[in-house]
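# nightly structure sweep
# worker-07 picked up a monomer target from the shared queue
# config: single-sequence mode, recycle default, output format = structure tokens
# input follows
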Amino acid sequence: MEFVQYREVLPGLQEQGLIEAADEDGLIRLEIEPQPRLKTLHLRDPHSRVTPYPDACVLDRPKAELSGILEQALDRIHLAEVLVIPVGQWRDVIDCVAYDLAADEEWREIDALAALHQNTRNALAVTRGETRLLVDMVRSLLSNGSSPRQDLAITSDVAPLLVEVFHDGALSLTWEGAIIDSILKHLRTASA
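# output follows
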């Protein structure tokens, strides 16, 4: 994992149809422009207050299951690398997850590096072999998150992908329709 300057990845994100959108709290979220081949799956804990996108397929799932679903989704995406970008600043995310991940040696390496980026929205590049730590970070954020400033976007500058992690227990995945359909089928089969 390594941090990449946000302004360096932004042109690639824009090429994939991602745009910045400031919300009412001044936080900068990423949104993806509608494309015919994309679908959105919105998973939410019953206590989440996040409003799904109008065209999203919505499934209720307990907050405790969302990080595992994210892990399965990342396995199906088959990208060499994803970019993790906070909605607020890294400081908000680090403060939220640091206690749970303190014993993890890989996290300690990232935590030391993150200290240099804590007041930024720089992208954290995560390779396929590093997704376990990303999933652990999301699990901790979903368990301990208390503010929209801790929300995350997981995206790519080489493919139209947007995964939004909301601190209050929602996960929104926008990706190629066939992959979303595959994830949806798996989730419905698993809960049947």
